[in-house]
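Dear U.,

For the methods section draft, I wanted the exact inputs and outputs in one place so we can describe them consistently. I've listed the two proteins in the order they'll appear in the manuscript figures. Please don't edit the token lines directly; just add comments below if something needs changing.

First protein:
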Amino acid sequence: MVDEARKLLEEAVKGKSDEEIMGFVELFGGTGTALDTIFEGMKSALNPEKAQDCVVGYEIADNGTTHAYAVTVANGAASVEKREPSDARVTLGMTLPDFLRIVAGDLDGTQGFMAGKIKIKGDMMFAMQVPQMFDL
């Protein structure tokens, strides 16, 4: 992500309640806009030296709606599609506020999993390697 956008996200998320975070999301243009912006940023945040060819799925829950994304990493580049990640090596499921906390660095993925905030489907060992592929 661009440094300025990341700083804005960090300020909007750090120490905030789910309701406060959702208020920020609405000001930003809603869930779809926020998620599209973050996933688009993930393409440039991929560290080619640490990348592994794979599909990583995300299922982000917001007020009873699940937003599904598939991030495909191949040949040191990432692409993103809004779709069910049925071919994913691992799928990470969480609420929108917790996803934003992870992206902003306010929630550690391992701690989030241990606290039941992140659900993992697929290769759990690989799930721990996913954050290392991205310079977020």
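Second protein (the one for the lower panel):
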Amino acid sequence: MKVKQCESLQEIRDEIDKVDEQIIDLIAHRKNYVAQAARFKHSVAEIKADDRIEDVLNHVRHKALSLGLSPNLVIELFSRMIHDMVETEISEFRNAKNF
């Protein structure tokens, strides 16, 4: 990913704001897929899928390391995001079963 050479602090802040917007868009995109996944699960235990969570966290840890990022930061962010999205998926699952 190419980083623009900025000429001022304001330009840097503007670019960071753009990146933040992209991050939010990608989180929303991910959440939409998580919500869809509820259709293919048969139980809340299957939604909580500890093995899958471990795989995701290992994957993002290695990706962070390859990009020179703090793996602790990335794991913390993803753990929080996954926890929230698991709760969303459980709600979707329960709502679908009530119809």
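Candidate sentences for the figure legend, describing the second protein: The first helix runs from residue 9 to 37. The chain has four helices and no strands.

Thanks,
Y.
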